[in-house]
Amino acid sequence: MEKDKLYFLPLGGSGEIGMNLNLYAYNNEWLMVDLGVSFYDRLGVDVMMPNPQYIVERRKDLKGLLLTHAHEDHIGAVPYLWEQLKCPIYATPFTAEMVRRKFKERHIDYGDFIHEIPLKGHQKIGPFDIELVSLTHSIPEPNGVVIRTKAGTIFHTGDWKIDPNPMVGDPIDSEKLKALGDEGVLAMVCDSTNVFCEGFSGSEGDVRENLKSVIGGYKKEKLFVTCFASNLARLETVALAAQEAGRRVVLFGRSFDRMVEVARENGYLKEVAPFITAEAAATMPASKVLYLCSGSQGESRAALSRIAAGTMKHVSINDGDVVIFSSRVIPGNERSINAIKNKLIRLGVHVITRHDLDLHVSGHPARSELEQMYDWIRPKILIPVHGELQHMVEQGRLGRRHGIKEIVVPENGTLIEVSEGEAGIIDEVASGRLALDGDVLVTFDHGTLKERRILESNGVVSVSLVLDTKNALKDSAFSTKGFVVQSDMTDAVYQAIQDGYSHLARSELDNEGNVQISVEKYVRRVISQINGKKPLVLVHVLRV
Predict the structure, then answer these.
(1) What is the pLDDT of residues 387-407, one digit of tens each?
(2) What's the confidence (pLDDT) of residue 70?
(3) Does 326 share its domain with 340?
């Protein structure tokens, strides 16, 4: 990288929705913006996150981590990866408190590394002069970030929308955005999530009125509502609608509990009555209670799925009850969401979604909002992020039609020079994903996950061989899990075991590894020939 030039490097969140990790470099000093996760419901993995190895190797030059807001796809990886970075963390009060709690839950000593920036505040981080701009989104204190350097100014939008009536927090600071455009912006790095949606994304204020009407319309039924726990305005809306309808609210889901605690500490939810426990609600008429549950994406361990399965204490869901989904479908979660809806319907539950009524609005900008932001900021360069490749390319087309001259579409690992007239990808660096396997972080190409992929689709064969002291094969046995054993397979597998053993020279039999590799190859081959499967083959050698 050249001296006195500005660079942008995404390691997560470009070419995908979630797992945001963005890096800016100037004179070999780095600023990280956001460090998030995505959720993953396969192979025993719940959470995945960007692989930060590139910046870990340069952590002495990493001047700070700036967090735009408190959604998991922007802060969720901090407690897992920060100890590899040990850099200062900067955030507004609400987000800072969410991060502190994450550190405390994992018993991480963060010392004096967390620094609060007030709303609309300024902060010097290395060579980067930072100013926060208040935007609107589906969580308190969302910020756009003005990054000023001697090489030019970048506006990093984070997640945003234009909501004239956001219910929690102030409306978008349009005057500041216009002033920023007048000042001159070299590049805008911008959210692409809803670029295919025409018009505007809608207002949280309209959702509040609709939810009040829907909740108030049920006088006797037991009511359940599920939404994103991080959407504090929606949580407040449900609570106020319940109060207006004469119902008390029970929270189900640790994510809701955490959000409410941090919100109250930071001055939010002032009009919301205290929530009641599930034990107290169990003694009350159904018409006097509303259950607010996590699990709008069909997560198997979330509250709604557990209630539907009958495994949650002090609450049940039955024929005639009502479940309201005040949420959208995150791409990739369609199957799990449909599964929980079908399960509820099978129980006789009346399921209401955003397709029935306007019960949800997105927190991301639709096309007209993007065009409005272009008019305010008037950047010379547009770098779309926060979307799959199709979203980012489409935002590039939209920006070009709106008069932005230079468009650079990144993917994770693309190093971009941010210079007027010269903007473009100049290099690619190592990137990738990490999986949280229990409490251990592993790369997605780790042998353990490779084995689980094989187990998931092809099953496993366990083979035991008994050799005597002279390496003669005295006995063998095998067992299978995860695929159909056909009638002609048993004899064929035993023959494959014999062939794999016999294939080895006498001198090779002393090495158990040789025996295992040879028998494994022959057994896998014969099973593939019989039923088309290539299972994981485990060979155990016993000597007597």
Answers:
(1) 999 999 999 999 999 999 999
(2) 96
(3) yes
Given a contact cutoff of 8 angstroms between Cβ atoms, the answer to whether 6 and 152 are in contact is yes
Q: Is residue 448 part of a domain?
A: no
| Span between the terminal Cα atoms of the chain, in Å | 64
Q: Does the pLDDT of residue 329 top 90, yes or no?
A: no
Residue 182, CB-side half-sphere exposure with 13 Å CA sphere: 6
Contact predicate 471/511, CB 8 Å: no
Measured over the CA atoms of residue 48, residue 53, residue 55 and residue 61, the dihedral's sign is: positive
Are 394 and 422 within one domain? yes
For residue 482, give its domain range.
459-543
Most confidently predicted of 267-276, 331-340, 456-465:
267-276
Closest CA to 188 of 152, 162, 161: 152
Pair 178, 319 in one domain: no
Number of domains making up the chain: 3
Do 412 and 280 belong to one domain?
no
- Let me know if residue 103 belongs to a domain: yes
Taking the C-alpha atoms of residue 187 and residue 419, their distance in angstroms, rounded to an integer, is 9
Domain co-membership, 44 together with 177: yes
- Domain containing residue 37: CATH number: 3.60.15.10
Tell me how far CA of residue 262 lies from CA of 106, 122, 238, 249, in angstroms: 17, 23, 18, 18
d(C-alpha 192, C-alpha 394), whole Å: 8
